[in-house]
Write a structure and sequence with these properties.
four-stranded antiparallel sheet; about 15% strand; 4 helices; Topoisomerase I, Chain A, domain 4; Gyrase A, domain 2; two-stranded antiparallel sheet; about 180 residues; alpha+beta; 2 domains; elongated
């Protein structure tokens, strides 16, 4: 019972860390990265599909992303999806491939992106704290129903707190790493 609560909680924490990593990968830095566009949804074949399933995405230079659709008939659709996204880059195509030239970021834009990173990290931290509260409540319920002893409750609560502290430290480290990446010129 206690192990189930701890296992569920640990799974939630791992998902939170992965979700943060995934979200921060979409935040533009001064360098080109396939992560910037690979999860853009494109309306193709009657359904929205992630771009990485419709095209080969490569980064031949530090400031260039090249998207080569498997079906060249989708070039206009992909181009439109990129323009409608919030990445702020205008695509250019030659009928076979789409090129995204990544302009250098201004100092002001870098500071805005750092705020976005910090905000996202804080959102995930709040989510982790809410999950911690839920786990603690589940443990207290088990103790109230006399399914675990008071000592087991204390040990389990300490374990939940240890997991939380480690997760928060990981989130902060990921956020700091992304901030440094954004601020690097």
């Amino acid at each position: 019972m206690v192990n189930d609560v701890l296992r569920d909680y640990e799974a939630h924490l791992k998902k939170a860390v992965e979700a943060l990593r995934h979200h921060l990968a979409t935040i533009r830095t001064g360098r080109a990265s396939a992560g910037l566009v690979e999860h853009l949804h494109v309306e193709a074949y009657g359904a929205p599909m992630p771009l990485n399933q419709l095209a080969n995405i490569s980064v031949p230079e530090a400031r260039l992303i090249v998207i080569q659709p498997y079906d060249t008939g989708l070039i206009k659709t992909i181009e439109k999806a990129i323009q409608q996204s919030d990445i702020g880059i205008n695509p250019s195509n030659d009928g076979r491939v789409i090129r995204l030239a990544i302009p250098p970021l201004t100092e002001e834009r870098r500071r805005e992106l750092v705020k976005v990173v910090r905000h996202r990290v804080e959102e995930v931290r709040v989510s982790v704290r809410n999950q911690r509260r839920d786990a603690m409540d589940q443990l207290k319920e088990l103790e109230a129903e006399k399914l675990i002893s008071e000592d087991e409750l204390k040990r389990a609560q300490e374990r939940v707190q240890q997991l939380t502290d480690k997760c928060i430290a990981d989130l902060d480290a990921i956020g700091k790493e992304k901030e440094a990446e954004v601020m690097a010129v």
